[in-house]
Amino acid sequence: MLNQLVELINKNVPGANATAFIPEDTAKLDGSVTVEAAKILDIATWLRSNTEMPFNALHVISAVDYVEYFEVCYMFAHYDVENPREVILKVKLTDRVDPRLDSIVSVYPAANFQEREAFDMMGVRFNNHPDPRRILCPDDWVGFPLRKDYVYPKMYNGMEVFPDSKMNFEDREFKARQDLINKAQKAASVDEVQ
Amino acid sequence: MQDGVVLTTLDDFLNWGRKNSLWPMTFGLACCAIEMMATGASKYDLERFGAGAFMATPRRSDVMIVAGTVTLKMATRVKTLYEQMAEPKYVISMGSCANKGGPYWQHGYHVLKGVDEVVPVDVYVPGCPPRPESLIEGVMTLQKKIANERLLRNKCVKHA
Amino acid sequence: MQSRWDIGTPEKPTITSETEKLKTELLTLNMGPQHPATHGVLRIEIKTDSEIVAHAIPHLGYLHRCMEKHSENLDYRGVIPFVDRLDYLAAMSMEWTYVAAVEKMLGTEVPRRAELLRIMTAELQRIASHLVAFGTYIIDLGPQTVFLYAFEMREKILRLFEEVSGARMLYNYIWVGGLWNDWSDEQLARVAAFCDEMEVEAKKYYDLNSTNKIFINRTANVGVMSTQDCFDFGATGPVLRGSGYNWDLRKNMPYSLYEEFDFDVCVGTGEIGQVGDCYNRYIVRMNEVIQSIRIIRQVLEKLEPGPIMAKVPKIIKLPKGEVYMRHECPRGELGIHLVSEDGGKTPYRLKVKSPCFTHVSMLPRVAPGQMIADFVATVGSIDIVLGEVDR
After folding, report:
1. Cross-chain CB nearest to C62 (options B73, B103, B108)
2. In this structure, which topology does domain C88-361 adopt according to CATH?
3. For residue C176, with 0-12 CB atoms within 10 Å meaning exposed, 13-18 middle and 19 or more buried, which class applies?
4. In a domain, A46, yes or no
5. CA separation, residue B108 to residues A63, A114, C73 (Å)
6. B111-to-A37, A114, B103, C28, C369 alpha-carbon distances in Å
7. Does the beta carbon of B73 lie under 8 angstroms from any beta carbon of chain C?
8. Cβ distance B127 to B3 under 8 Å?
9. Predicted-complex ipTM score
10. Contact A56/C at CB under 8 A
């Protein structure tokens, strides 16, 4: 199915450069189709409106941070009792400072909230989005939480985010400390005897 | 004539009235809210303690049961609602998220570690989520605390 | 002859020439984070033109608990309590979806008894979740007795779950490789007794509520979501089935052992009201309870003694790759996108596609033109759980 989809995309959307990734063990892992970032809007339009292999719904947009590049995965699904199908479409973004993509809200209105979340969590901005604000974090939040190099904030609006009195690290390392103390005491008593 | 006379102190009388009709404000935020609703339902009845009338508005309620995780976005609203309540007012912090941040304490960048960062808390009820019986014990502990209040002396209670 | 259920089409109020001369502007109301009728901390900014909603903008994030960041720092088994707390009313389904994703990547073969028991717990959880949906929906509209009835039956299910998993609501019961505790024959006999009781109760709810003229007037022809709207926004579950489209993941893309079971998919028919309105979504949930009872009875017949936990390595390390697993949960289709790097002990990225998130995004499309009371009925009929929306 993925190879057929890749052929159709390359035929109908020029410049898409679609490639399929089919893992060796398809029972364990899911395959995906990687496409060119600049052509995502044309590809989405073709996916919704074509007749050979249509996909009538967008499920989720998931952004993953591999440290050198970002990967934005679009999960498309087709709800049809005769031929149900789903595909993972991936787009690779190499710009770490200001990654940009075209918004597909005009084709799939489901993308509205999903793209806002991708922006909020990973910092991927979408051109021509009708409402480009943060969705889960507050509007004046600094930073993009799900990036691998995110630093936790100390204060927010006068409230301490990680107050020392509430952090449980001592309880967790209690057993380790007890073991250390016991070992040191045993060593000290052995020294004394000697 | 002897059966119709009751002698008591003014403190006890006022406290008896206050503790037996604690009207909570519906402030269910997350999973603990469902257990609060189950406490108010028919099996673990909170109505028999006088605390069955869940008011949606803070102006009419006596106790705010903070049930669920308080996030940083929500914290200012919690403070506003607490200030809108009329004296005497009490706060029960229900569940481990409201006590100290709960299971989200380690990496929760958006979670307020305990509602006592913004609001003074009277009773802490532990659990994740606390059983309805635990919440009832929390309400009863608050009732004991109210029974010890004194009208003319300061309001700090030494033994709950 | 006018039938008993003919309530006609709703009339939109018209603006007369006198009101046109007055300068009007839209009033912005806040159906704020603390509200008795939003199920949790959801803030909806409503711009109204007198009583009619012109625009509804949902604001989310008041319960954003950073679950995805936690899952990157915990090992695969340690994420299960966090996945529980996503949709806390359907915790078993959430756990099952996540554990199924991990098991697919590991390649473990779950024993048959464990799979059957997982199906049974998921269906019992579906009944419990629909009872809460139904009880709290009714409270939004006004009456309070039905809430007590629904929670009474839910307590029975929670009692069954508490005996087997130790907790009333957030179980941590479905583990990677199977289940951690088995059901005894006596407990299974009680499940069968519960099924009989629930059927009688469901008939009682039908007589009390589904044929109640006031309830029908409040919910029929209100908040119509067409099938095209549902596809545009990616709606699934009772919302999609209530708009007339026959799609259930358990039948169309079956997972686990659902192919062996005989049950019907409940679709909104438009017998009362219009297809896609609040009443049809409600009746789909009520019918699903009956179908779940059917599945549970079939599971009880098929159960045989056997192991309930497969052999899973002590430290789970998954190969490099990703998996997108979808399961039919009571509120829609939950999707778990699990990305792992080679030999990683923690998920590299765990993205949760929550059905309520997509359903909340449909509110700006459905709201304009409704009265505020109808808007409250619509919000309740979507059956939102904020733990899932905000993660």
Report:
1. B73
2. Cytochrome-c3 Hydrogenase; chain B (1.10.645)
3. buried
4. yes
5. 20, 22, 11
6. 35, 22, 10, 29, 37
7. yes
8. no
9. 0.87
10. yes
Nearest residue of B to residue A156, measured between CA atoms: B72
In angstroms, the CA C42 to CA C61 distance is 8
Partners of residue C179 on adjacent β-strands:
C174
The CA distances from residue B66 to A126, B61, B143, C37, C135, in Å, are 38, 13, 17, 17, 22
Helix (H, G, I), strand (E, B) or coil at B87: coil
Structural domain total, chain A: 1
This prediction has a pTM of 0.90
Helix (H) or strand (E) holding C258: none
Contacts of A64 (CB under 8 A, 6+ apart): A70, A71, A72, A73, C339, C348, C349, C351
> A70 in a domain, yes or no?
yes
Q: CATH number, domain at A89?
A: 3.30.460.80
Residues in C touching A73 (Cβ below 8 Å)? 322, 337
Q: Of C43, C63, C35, which Cα lies nearest the Cα of C389? A: C63
CB atoms within 10 A of CB C167: 17
Residue A14 lies inside a defined structural domain of this protein: yes
- Spatial CA neighbour of C283 closest among C301, C296, C294, C270: C270
Q: Tokens for C109, please give them.
A: 């073969």
Structural domain including A78 reads 2-148
Q: Are C196 and C297 in contact (CB under 8 A)?
A: no
Task: Enumerate the residues of chain C whose CB falls inside 8 A of the CB of residue A30.
Answer: 321-324
HSE, side-chain direction, 13 A CA sphere, residue C51? 8
Residue bearing tokens 């949902």: C58
Kindly state the tokens that stand for C16.
């007369």
Per-residue pLDDT of chain A (194 residues; tens, 9 = 90+): 888 888 888 888 888 788 888 888 888 888 889 998 888 898 999 988 888 888 989 999 999 998 888 999 999 999 888 888 889 999 999 888 888 999 999 999 999 999 999 999 999 999 889 888 899 999 888 889 988 888 888 888 888 888 887 777 766 666 677 778 888 888 887 776 65
